[in-house]
Predict the 3D structure of the following.
Amino acid sequence: MRLTQVLSRFARRFIARLTAFEGAWRTSMRLGLLMCLVLGAGWAPAQPLELTQAHATVTVQGVSTERDVGLPYIWDRNHKGSQGEARFDLAFDLPQLPGEPWGLYLQRLGNAYEIRLNGRLLEQGGDLERFNQGDAGHMPRLLNIPEGSLSRHNLLSIRIRADAGRHGGLSRLVIGRVDEVYPLFRKAHLWLSTGTLLVTGFSLVVGLVALALWATQTQEGADGRVRRDPLYLFAALAELAWSLRVGNGHIESPPLAWPWWGVLPVVALGAWGVFMVFFSMELTGWRRSPLVLGFRRWLVLLLVLGPVAAVWALGFGHPLVLTLWYGALGLSFLAFGLWFVAHAARVPGASQRIVALAVVTNVLVGLRDLYVFRIDPAYPSNSLLYYSSVLFGLTLAYVVIARFRQVSAHARELMGTLTSRIAERERELNSSYQRLEALAREQERTSERTRILRDMHDGVGSHISAAIRQLQSGRARDEDVLQTLRDSLDQLKLTIDAMHLPHGDITALLANLRYRLEPRFAASDVELQWAVDLLEPVQRLDGLSMRHLQFMVFEALSNVLQHAHASWLRIEAVMVPEGARIRIVDNGQGFDVSLPPRKGLASMRERAAAIGARLSVDSAPGRTVVEILVPAG
């Protein structure tokens, strides 16, 4: 019409000019020419043709009928619970043959189909002879019409195979120039194919993330058992079920035959709604109320009845059963949504209000889809619930972020509290350590004083006591008393030397004894023979153990000086596989080792046991050997 108006205005102007400057006969000829152009422009189609009437030959259970039908032709509405096939013949005329590429747009057909234009095959999808197989006509189609296929009088023949309960049939058709038809296809494809594919991917990612959060976010209960947050589990199950529901439209060849495959999307829809409600209940903390428990049982019952209703409707041809199940599910969700909104309005915080908005939106959109797909006689275009479900995924992301921020803030608060407590504890520990260190030093000094007193009592004190008894008896010789006092003095010096002995250094211990006692051996005409190797330090010998070892060696040497009447004494020390071996050998008169040990020998045995050493004594006239074996380990 636009082109006609433009040409008309142009003609009027042109006629006016011709009238002013040219003759009437030339004006008439040109006017006739312009009128032909205007009429030719009016004959060309200004918009695509929409084909809404067809002559249909329908075959159901072997019985064929012919009649004129209007499009869209919805198989499940006209043949409830039955499968069959149909052929649609659509005739259309063109005022003239087009010079541009043409295309044919179909929103939906099938479940399997064959399209011919003037007897020429344009496209075929699925197997027309095998029922309950793939769904090849689920997505919109745009067919390019080959050049030369159109004529002034055309016949478009479409043959379909329709399965029961599978939304088969034929939508309205649009034919025209490709640049006019393609925007219709692009819009439908964007919503039905690209949009649902994006929703499927989004739901799958959200579901996997929620599942990972449920698996990794654990906490230990009061009973010691590890628990996971069910909120993330319900969110994961809901989103994974919804990804299956939406992604089903992209599966043309399902792994199961129809109607068994049709049960799966029905169950997925029910699972998505039920787990979304459970997620909302976990968010609000509704768990133990009798009313909530009853409502949860009701939803679980509906979820269990979903496969039964699907099999009954799709397998036995009773679609009303599935419609009633959808209705019960939708009304249950609507009641919960209103209840949830009323609760969210009374509590502070945005999380529950956002979830309430998402729940109510999805419930209302779901009821709209229930009407469009199960009640409305028109062919459904697309499910808006596919896209409103994204609100639930976004709500889950918001809840996770909000919880993460809350947990992070709580963790920072705990870290601050813990840091202050640790600092306070460190101060207390430092103070306790200082007190313990002072107490340890005092205890060490006390222990050292006790040791010195004990050594002086056992060594110096016993020798002085012996000297006193010798003097009191009046029978001791001056040389004996002098010897006893010298032993006492040597014992005192060795007690002082023991304070500076290196731990485990047996060589230094023996060298110190040699330094202190060698003058006494020389004064007693006893030859001191030295056969001491450079011994490896024995790490297990601490200060107390070194003092015990010093006393044992000193006691052995003192016995030789006082009682053996020897002319030589030999000190040997060598490392053997068992440890450090010390031997004191003399050529004195010896003694009977079978007799009860004297006080000095008994003390040596006690000290050997205290440091884990092995003491052995072998004596005979002319040779006495005292051997001390100190284990290295």
Observations:
- Residues 1-8, 14-46 have pLDDT under 50 and may be disordered.
